[in-house]
Design goal:
- By secondary structure, the protein is α/β, with parallel strands linked by helices.
- It has 2 domains: about 210 residues, FAD/NAD(P)-binding domain, CATH 3.50.50; about 150 residues, 2-Layer Sandwich (D-Amino Acid Oxidase, Chain A, domain 2).
- It is about 30% helix and about 25% strand.
- The strands form 3 sheets. Strands 1, 2, 8, 9, 10, 11, 17 and 18 form an 8-stranded mixed sheet that branches.
- A hairpin with a 4-residue loop joins strand 10 and strand 11.
- Helix 2 runs parallel beside helix 7, helix 2 crosses helix 10 and helix 3 crosses helix 10.
- About 50% of the residues are buried.
- Bound molecules: flavin-adenine dinucleotide.
- The site of flavin-adenine dinucleotide has 38 residues, from helix 2, strand 12 and strand 16.
Length: about 425
């Protein structure tokens, strides 16, 4: 793999950018692989990368029905944070944040991590009490969090209206939270995995799972059958469809989640702001656009609160908090399908079907989990047993009643 550096950039410029190599190989499907990963989003690509890098397992294919990063990974709102309530979630998501912090160096690809802090607002005394409890739990989990007064918040976010229909009583910030460039994350992992020998096969849809009794032995694809020692599903909002091919029913509800992007404006917001009650969050991208989102759609395009279109509901909430943004023009919007579990905690690990593994149930928060998801699923595939950090995220938790309710920390997933 050609290393990127200031010198390679200069050499590229001097040769009029004609000599750049493709970042990853165009692979053709082979007859069989030790491990087949379905879905070339961040989770699938990161798992392939860590399988090759940390465990030396290189006979791996990542199959993608479209082009890599064309699912939720390449279009989400890019928020990374680890301010979760329960210790199991905090340990997993904070490992992820630590991996994010070194990822540009690890992948030799600038993922543009910007740790500008994520600020969660409270709009009543009761909410502030709950947020303080949440912030304390985060600190007990050894994750950074800081409770802020309305004055502190105004200093950080001067455009925010504190005394409107949703008065701001305070909030808390996770200073290490931030954003990164989502395409770069998919491309960086793809480049790293491909260089280590992983075959990334695009335009290859998995249409069925080959089974011998209760055991998965491969996949049927739009480009023919491919044998596999193990198969991992990393297909975000399509997990229940693929799992059903092996007769597995999953406790997930698939919903649409939308993101909106405004025209670019001058820098005016240098933190990510989230209001769980108003159901809206926003940040400003490095290009100046205001990137915002709200709750998942209970029915296509209708909000769960007032029965009005989600777009209208989310924009009304944003304008209430940021009156100056009423003049913004919306540039684009997009909706992806997300799989939401009853406790909004992911579904990870082996399944009751032999050789079938799942990295799913990510709901509205699987982007931030890409490095840790890849790392722990690679370990799980190699050992045939869950990595200690994701043991609690297995499907069996529903049978045992051991749910990890992250409804509040998931922010907008319900
Ligand atoms: C609007 C929106 C905003 C979001 N914002 C955030 C955020 O700010 N922070 C955060 O942490 N998370 C966020 N998320 C969630 C996050 O994007 C996802 O949880 C994460 O990207 C999941 O990664 P993945 O690799 O599992 O899925 P994906 O990136 O969706 O990749 C799955 C891939 O599988 C492919 N596929 C599906 N079926 C098949 C098949 N049969 N055969 C072959 N390939 C197949 C798809 O084409 C796709 O490329 C958001 C999601 C949405 C929709």
């Amino acid at each position: 793999m050609k290393r990127y550096s200031i010198f390679s950039l200069a050499a590229g410029a001097l040769t009029r950018h004609r000599r750049w190599e493709p970042a990853w190989r165009t692979a053709q499907p082979r007859k069989a692989y030790d491990i087949v990963i379905v879905g070339a989003g961040g989770q699938g690509l990161a798992t392939a990368y860590y399988l090759a890098k940390k465990h030396g397992v290189r006979n791996v294919a990542v199959l993608e029905k479209g082009y890599l990063g064309s699912g939720n990974t390449g279009r989400n709102t890019q928020v990374t944070r680890s301010n979760y309530y329960w210790p199991e979630s905090a340990a997993f998501f904070d490992l992820s944040l630590k991996l994010w912090e070194g990822l540009s160096t690890e992948l030799n690809f600038n993922i543009q991590l910007s740790q500008r802090g994520i600020l969660t607002l409270a709009h009543s005394h009761h909410e502030l009490d709950a947020l303080q409890r949440w912030a304390n739990a985060i600190q007990v989990n050894e994750v950074d969090s800081l409770v802020l007064s309305p004055e502190d918040i105004k200093r950080r976010v001067p455009l925010l209206r504190l005394d409107g229909r949703y008065p701001v009583h305070g909030g808390f910030i996770q200073p290490r939270g931030g954003t990164s460039r989502h395409d770069a994350v998919a491309w960086g992992y793809a480049r790293g995995a491909s260089a280590l020998g992983v075959d990334i096969i695009q335009q290859c849809e998995v249409t069925g799972l080959a089974m011998q009794g209760d055991r998965v032995t491969g996949v049927e694809t739009s480009r023919g059958p491919i044998g596999a020692g193990k198969v991992m599903l990393a297909v975000a909002g399509h997990t229940s469809v693929l799992a059903a091919m092996a007769g597995l029913r999953l406790p997930v509800v698939s919903m649409t989640l939308q993101a909106y992007v405004s025209e670019p404006i001058k820098p005016c917001l240098d933190t990510i702001l989230l209001s769980p009650v108003v159901h809206m969050y926003l940040s400003q991208s490095d290009r100046g656009e205001i990137v915002f989102g709200g709750g998942a759609d209970a029915y296509p395009s209708y909000s769960q609160r007032g029965g009005v279109p989600v777009l209208q509901d989310t924009i009304a909430a944003m304008i209430e908090l940021f009156p100056a943004f009423s003049r913004l023009r919306l540039m684009r919007q997009w909706g992806g399908i997300v799989d939401i579990t009853p406790d909004t905690t992911p579904l990870m690990g082996p399944t009751s079907v032999e050789n079938l593994y799942i990295s799913g149930g990510w709901g509205t928060g699987g982007y931030k989990a890409i490095p840790a998801g890849g790392d722990t699923m690679a370990y799980t595939l190699v050992h045939g047993a869950p990595h200690p950090l994701i043991k609690a995220f297995g499907l069996d938790r529903f049978a045992r009643g051991a749910l990890i309710d992250e409804g509040a920390a998931s922010g907008v997933a319900h």
